[in-house]
Amino acid sequence: MEPDATFILYDIASLKPYTENSCAPNPWKARYALNFKGLSYRTEWVLMTDIAKVRKGFGLSACRNFADGTAFHTLPVLVTDPKDPSSAIGDSFDIANYLQKTFPDAGAGDLFPEQNLDYTLPAHFQSLVPLSERDDDVHADYARFQANVDMAFSVHTQLAAHGMRWDPEVEEAVRAEFLRRIGKKSWDELGIEGEAREQLKASFEATLGGLAALLKRDASGPFMLGAQPSYADIIVGGWLRMMSKALPKGEWEELQRWYDGVFGKLHAALQKRFGEMK
């Protein structure tokens, strides 16, 4: 396949304008990867209430399940041939694997260069089930890394809960669905304030310490391999994009300064080089 093929990336519609406010981490991993490879694509925005219908329309199963065993349908989806619905790929890691296999030398080069990705969650998180657990061995080191990164950020997303915004026509339905998923009765219960919030922020900063160490190992930065970006940076970057939009402004500025500013530098570099919205 030629590297100028046109793809369709299905992303989660947030608050309009979508191009400014989009922040779902997994679609951003796919977007960064597409831009890393310098490929032509367009974004199709999907309201959260329509995600299951879109995935089922492409014959894609859910990426994972909720704690109660019900299907969790989410995005991204990448359609690699607009004339062939069966060409749809429904997982951000699978999308990256496909792009590297199909376009190995395109754009910025190798998405999966060899490197040490030894990032271990603190012991009290290790008993949790990884949100992105995989059963294959394609780039297995990156897959394990993603599982740990996803968990590190996910267990602290309560800090960003009240910063998430959606189109007004579906906001009530989306909030109701979020409450159903976690067994809460009111949106206020999702928030966290005062001393409890400070403790969760401290936990978040400590949990990211291992990631910061990877970003500091090559002083030339801003990526884990110095000047060479990789999918490991993109995995972290997808979550940083979410936090940049959903955390209170002052707390996002704090996060960017943690560990000598490595996360702020990584986010800025990814946005500058691979953050174009198409």
From TrEMBL:
Domain GST N-terminal residue range list: 14-107
Alphabetized PROSITE patterns for the sequence: GST_NTER (PS50404)
One Pfam family named in its UniProt record: GST_C_7
Regions that span the bilayer: none
CDD domains membership: GST_C_family
Record protein name field: GST N-terminal domain-containing protein
